[in-house]
Design brief:
single chain; about 110 residues; alpha+beta; four-stranded antiparallel sheet; two-stranded antiparallel ribbon; elongated
């Protein structure tokens, strides 16, 4: 058995959770915040049997697409001057997935 930890951007999570639920994958959904853009994301904890891992990973890949957004990075030109927003193109979306081996699983 594996524990899959999937960190997904909020924009991608609803269709992903809908499909996982439809395909009978049990999951726990946690609201989290990314450190770089400080924007909302969701962390899913999913217990899965080894033989269903590939199916799970393909569902995640299908529902979590990477895209580019423009955000502003604040810069200072001189000490005492105002902050000047600097546009920055960054890639967001997709998913960060960790797959961990589970030694014991108990449902109480």
């Amino acid at each position: 058995m594996k524990l899959v930890i999937a960190i997904v951007q909020d924009a991608d999570v609803n269709p992903l959770v809908d499909e996982l639920t439809e395909k009978k994958f049990g999951l726990t959904k946690l609201s989290t915040t990314g450190g770089f853009l400080k924007s909302g994301n969701t962390t899913l904890l999913i217990g899965v049997e080894d033989e269903k891992l590939d199916e799970l990973l393909s569902i995640i890949e299908k529902n979590c697409k990477q895209r580019e957004i423009t955000t502003s990075l604040l810069t200072v030109t001189m000490p005492g001057d105002a902050f000047i927003p600097y546009p920055l193109e960054v890639k967001v979306g997709g998913a960060t997935v960790f797959v961990l081996e589970v030694n014991q699983f108990v449902r109480i």
